[in-house]
Amino acid sequence: MIIRGDLGPGDRLPVEKELAEAFGVSRGPLREGVRALVLLGVLGTRRGSGTYVTSLDAARLLSPVGFFADLHQPASSAHLSAVRRVLEVEAVGHAAAVITDEQLDMLASALDEIDHELAGAGNGNLEAVIDADNRFHTTIARTGGNPVLAALVESLVSRTFRSRLWRAIHERGANERTQSEHRAILDALRRRDPDAARIRMAGHLLAVELSVEHQDEGSADHIEPFG
User: Which residues does the UniProt record annotate as the domain HTH gntR-type (predicted)?
Assistant: First the structure.
């Protein structure tokens, strides 16, 4: 019904009896199917009201990709990183053509916050670094105006994955280099140069991948304060 367009975002599903008759199934399998679609973000329930089609926005429907990324085995890490690289390089190219001064200021603010923590001026808080790094990359992904591309970038690079990246970066003493790469990306965006932005992003992500590959498997789950 949803795929055919009979039901759209915000529409209420017919009552259970009608659905069972329409699909020629008993109520048991029907309920399982509805539950599965709720888990996938296609349907949502409202207490005392019924089951409705969600907004079907890309971020909601692609969020399970992040769960897969969190479950990945070390052997598949390189594959996920390669996909991330393709997506983010494309996203930054789109962003360079349309980015506003306000969005550039948001990116600069995120990098300033990372610098603040890395210099030990803050609490040396890894979580703060991850938050700022996430804002930097997701702002770029969203700026290009392609919600599906942005949702894929955000889903693939979950908080768990980003935490692992920064552990690897910190353990290799690559904090300053990583920030230099971020600044180079921002500079290309300020110049509204899509080709330069793509090159800078690709170089940055390849360097991060190298850090992850060399990460000590026996490292602790917590990084000591920066500085």
Answer: 1-56
pLDDT at 215: 60
Residue 130 CB contacts under 8 Å (≥ 6 apart), including other chains: 159, 162, 163, 166
H-only helix segments in 24-125: 27-39, 58-62, 64-71, 77-98, 101-118
The pLDDT score that the predictor gives to residue 43 is 82
Q: Residue 144 is encoded by which pair of tokens?
A: 């290009």
Per-residue model confidence (pLDDT) at position 178: 93
What is the DSSP-derived secondary structure letter of residue 121? S
Residue 120 contacts by C-beta under 8 Å, 6 or more apart in sequence?
A: 225, 226, 227
Element (H, E) at 46: strand 43-46
Q: Contact 138/154 with Cβ under 8 angstroms?
A: yes
Its sign, for the CA torsion 196, 201, 207, 213, is negative
Q: How far is CA 158 from CA 65, 77, 80, 89, 140, in A?
A: 9, 13, 11, 18, 16
- Quote the pLDDT of residue 219: 47
Q: Please report, for residues 68, 119, 160, the alpha-carbon distance to residue 136 in angstroms, rounded to integers and kept in the order given.
A: 23, 18, 17
Q: Which residues of the chain have pLDDT under 70?
A: 58-62, 64-76, 121-124, 214-227
Half-sphere exposure for 35 (CA within 13 Å, toward CB)? 6
Which tokens go with 227? 């500085």
Give the phi and the psi of residue 53 in degrees, each rounded to 5: -75, 135
Nearest to 57 by CA among 41, 39, 69, 68: 41
Q: What is the pLDDT of residue 130?
A: 92
